[in-house]
Design brief:
- Helices cover about 10% and strands about 40% of the residues.
- It is mainly beta.
- It has two domains: about 230 residues, no CATH class; about 170 residues.
- The strands form three sheets. Strands 3, 4, 5, 6, 7, 8, 9, 10, 11, 12 and 13 form an eleven-stranded antiparallel β-sheet that branches. Strands 1, 2, 15, 16, 17, 18, 19, 20, 21 and 23 form a ten-stranded antiparallel β-sheet that branches.
- A hairpin with a 2-residue loop joins strand 3 and strand 4.
Length: about 425
C-alpha cells in the first residue's frame, strides 16, 4: 500500500511539473494500460442563456462615461467634498477630468452640458433608481463645452465662484453637478477617469485660485468626493441588442449594463468516478460578425463561477462563493483566438483539479457555470465601469453547434490497478 501511495504522489507531482502529452505520459511514468489511461476530450454545452441587469451599482466604476452610441446613453454625476474654508477668498476655479478614451464609431465632436444637481444622491444607488434615469435637470446649463475627437488628455469645466461659494458656505446644499450630452444623437461615448481609478493623478479635480493679497494668487486643488455614471438603455426597442440576441439564439456578455452568461454541460455527469483531473478549459466562441459594441478600452477579463443551486428556468440561483475564502475556486478568463477562455494554463489546471474534480467526487452537484466581466471584489471593478458587449454563439445556433465547449484532460485509473 505504501508503494502504491508513493507512486500516486510521484505521478501527481509529475503532472504538476511537466507539460503532459494528452495521449502519452513521460517515459518515466508510462502507466497507460498498466494503471489506467490519459483522456483528452471535449464536451459541448447542453444549454446556455444570459440575463441582463439594467440597474446596477456603478459607484466603484473606474471610468465616468458621457455620450450616446447604439441606443446606449451615458451621463455622470460628481460631487466634491472637503472644500476649502469658507473664510478663504476664491478668485476663480475649474474642474479637470482626464480622458481615458472613446467608445463607438462616431468621429464628430461631442457637445456637453453641465447642470447643477438640486437634490441628494448616493453613488452606489443612483444608477439603480428609476428617478435618475433619463433625468431632466431643471433650469439652464451652468456651462457648455465641446470635447473634440482629438482630445485625449484633459477636459476643463469652468464653475462660477458664486456656485462654488454656495457649496462652501452651505454644505447641505452641495449636490454637485451632472454632465450629459447636449443631444440625444451621437455615435460615441467619451470615457474619463473616475475617483475610483488607480492613479490619483488622473482623478477628477477642482482647481481653484485662492487670494494671497492684493496681487498674488495660489493654485490649490480638491480631489475628494463621490461620482457615478448612469447608463440608460431602453428595455423595449427595435434596436435592443439584448432582445435581438435572445430572439436570434445569440448570447451576450456585457459590462456597463451587465449581461451575465450561464452555460451548462450535462456531459460532466459521464466523467468516471475514477478520473483524476489534469486540466479543463471553458471555451466560448465570439461572433466576429457582430463586434461593433466591443469596447477596446475595456479590460476584457472575465470571472468564471459555478452555480451551487438553480431552478430549471434560472429564475432563482445561487453562485458559489468559495472564491472569497479560497483562491483555488476563483477562475479568470480572457479573450483569445476569437473566443473567451481560461486566462492561462495554470487557470486551466486550477479549474480542472478543483472545480471539475469536486463534481466528480460529489462535493459539488450542479453542472451550470456563470461568466461575467470582472468586478468587485477585484480592484479593477470592470463590469460596472463602461459599456462593452461581446456577442457569442449559442448551442441552439444550428450553424455553430460546437461554439461553446469544455476541453477536459484527465487520467482514468483502472479498477484493480492498485492505485
Amino acid at each position: 500500500m505504501k508503494k502504491t501511495l508513493l507512486f500516486l504522489i510521484l505521478l501527481l507531482t509529475a503532472w504538476a511539473c511537466q507539460d503532459l502529452n494528452s495521449v502519452n505520459p513521460p517515459d518515466e511514468y508510462d502507466v497507460n494500460g498498466q494503471f489506467g489511461r490519459f483522456v483528452d476530450t471535449v464536451f459541448y454545452a447542453t444549454d446556455a442563456r444570459f440575463t441582463v441587469d439594467y440597474r446596477s451599482d456603478t459607484g466603484n466604476g473606474k471610468d465616468l462615461c458621457v455620450g450616446n452610441y447604439a441606443d446606449f446613453q451615458a451621463g455622470f454625476f460628481i460631487k466634491f467634498i472637503f472644500l476649502p474654508s469658507d473664510t478663504m477668498k476664491i478668485d476663480s476655479l475649474f474642474l479637470e477630468f482626464t480622458s481615458f478614451g472613446k467608445f463607438g464609431t462616431g468621429q464628430e465632436d461631442l457637445a456637453l452640458e453641465v447642470y447643477e444637481v438640486d437634490r441628494e444622491w448616493d453613488e452606489h444607488t443612483i444608477n439603480t433608481l428609476d428617478e435618475w434615469h433619463n433625468w431632466q435637470p431643471s433650469g439652464q446649463p451652468i456651462y457648455n463645452t465641446v470635447v473634440t475627437v482629438e482630445d485625449t488628455a484633459k477636459m476643463k469645466i469652468e464653475i462660477d465662484t458664486t456656485l462654488f461659494n454656495k457649496w462652501r458656505y452651505e454644505p447641505d446644499q452641495n449636490f454637485g453637478i451632472y454632465v450629459k450630452a447636449a443631444s440625444a444623437q451621437g455615435n460615441h461615448i467619451r470615457e474619463f477617469k473616475s475617483l475610483e481609478s488607480g492613479n490619483p493623478l488622473d482623478w477628477p479635480k477642482v482647481y481653484y485660485f485662492k487670494n494671497q493679497g492684493d496681487t498674488a494668487s495660489v493654485l490649490d486643488s480638491v480631489r475628494t468626493g463621490i461620482d457615478a455614471t448612469v447608463f440608460d438603455y431602453p428595455q423595449s426597442s427595435a434596436d435592443n441588442v439584448f432582445e435581438n440576441a435572445q430572439a436570434n439564439n445569440k448570447l451576450l456578455i456585457a459590462s456597463g449594463i451587465p449581461a451575465r452568461l450561464f452555460v451548462r454541460f450535462d456531459s460532466l455527469k459521464t466523467l468516471p468516478k475514477t478520473a483524476v483531473m489534469q486540466a479543463a478549459n471553458l471555451i466560448l466562441q465570439i461572433d466576429d460578425e457582430n463586434t461593433a459594441l466591443q469596447n477596446e478600452n475595456q479590460s476584457n477579463v472575465f470571472y468564471l463561477r459555478s452555480i451551487t443551486s438553480a431552478d430549471s428556468a434560472l429564475n432563482s440561483f445561487e453562485v458559489d462563493s468559495s472564491f472569497t475564502t479560497d483562491s483555488n475556486f476563483g477562475f479568470e478568463m480572457i479573450t483569445s483566438n476569437g473566443s473567451i477562455q481560461m486566462k492561462s494554463v495554470s487557470e486551466q489546471e486550477k479549474f480542472g483539479k478543483n472545480q471539475i474534480q469536486n463534481l466528480i467526487n460529489g462535493r459539488k452537484s450542479n453542472e451550470w457555470f456563470y461568466v461575467h466581466f470582472i468586478d468587485a471584489p477585484s480592484p479593477l471593478s470592470v463590469e460596472k465601469s463602461d459599456i462593452s458587449v461581446f456577442n457569442l454563439f449559442s448551442p441552439n445556433d444550428t450553424e455553430h453547434p460546437e461554439a461553446l465547449k469544455l476541453h477536459v484532460r484527465y487520467f482514468d485509473i483502472l479498477p484493480g490497478s492498485g492505485l
